[in-house]
Specification:
Layout: H1 6-22, E1 26-28, H2 40-49, E2 61-62, E3 65-66, H3 68-80, H4 88-92, E4 96-98, E5 107-110, E6 123-129, E7 132-137, E8 144-149, H5 153-156, E9 159-164, E10 172-177, E11 182-186, E12 190-191, E13 196-202, E14 210-216, E15 219-226, E16 234-238, E17 243-251, E18 257-266
């Protein structure tokens, strides 16, 4: 059976995320959605780390041996069911260019062959968070699939740039208020340090002002008032850091909780 290419899987994932954004993007906490699984970028990192210690083999794409693009191929296929392009140069022209910030699952490219100023991609790794990346090294004190730091002088001086081949969700969280109080959990995380928007839609039959509170890891970050009967949603911009976030809406006078939506933010 013919494998889907990297552009094909990116298109499939983007389409799925777009469709999900048209529906209500939160599921009842404790429900069956994505139970036991993380985001696609997180699954890609988990898959790549499962190959730690596999020896370096030029052209290798299995647990008996991997090269650097072979590790990307395997990690993406394990996480999504579709493999990446083979070869560092081919991967360097896939996906979207990343300036800042770098997120989980982004591909990092290095020039390990040129002398002096880096010019062409000859090595690739997968960003794993906290300044680290997982890759299949062919030379140095440690070879095979290892984890290294971007700040290591060898890699820092040879870094060419990053590409994003695994899409994150659209940066919008819809909170829909109804006459039935609910505690909801958003299925997929948002990327950190990226601007997102919280939209609160009032679908309640009753009136009265409401308080909206945003919490991070249980600590209040922001509180604002929502007036009843306003046209369109209340819009709150946010640039979140890594952590567990909550949007809590309560009645102003009675203090009754109307809705609580929990979402996570990953690097």
């Amino acid at each position: 059976m013919r494998r889907a290419s990297l552009p094909a899987v990116a298109l499939i994932l983007l389409s799925a995320l777009a469709l999900a954004g048209q529906a209500r993007p939160a599921s009842v906490a404790g429900g069956p959605s994505r139970a036991g699984r993380g985001s696609i970028p997180r699954e890609m990192i988990r898959a790549a780390l499962s190959y730690l210690g596999v020896p370096y083999v030029s052209g290798g794409v299995s647990r008996t041996g991997l090269d650097c693009s072979g590790l990307v191929f395997r990690a993406l296929e394990d996480a999504t069911g579709a493999g990446a392009s083979r070869g560092v140069e081919a991967l360097f022209h896939e996906g979207a260019t990343v300036i800042y910030p770098i997120h989980l699952g982004d591909l990092l490219f290095f020039d390990t062959e040129s002398q002096g100023q880096p010019r062409c991609a000859s090595h690739v790794g997968i960003y794993a968070g906290s300044g680290r990346f997982v890759h299949a090294a062919s030379e140095g004190s440690r070879t095979g699939v290892i984890v290294s730091r971007i700040s290591d002088p060898y890699y820092r001086d040879r870094f060419l740039g990053a590409r994003r081949v695994v899409p994150w969700r659209a940066p919008v969280l819809d909170v829909v208020l109804t006459d039935t109080a609910a505690h909801l959990a958003s299925d997929d995380p948002f990327p950190s340090r990226e601007r997102m928007t919280i939209q609160v839609f009032n679908r309640m039959t009753g009136g009265g002002p409401m308080d909206l509170t945003i919490l991070k890891d249980g600590n209040r970050i922001l509180q604002t008032r929502i007036a009843p009967g306003a046209f369109g949603p209340a819009v709150i911009p946010l640039t979140p850091a890594v952590g567990v976030w909550e949007v809590l809406v309560t009645r102003l006078f009675k203090g009754r909780e109307l809705e609580r939506v929990t979402f996570t933010v990953e690097e």
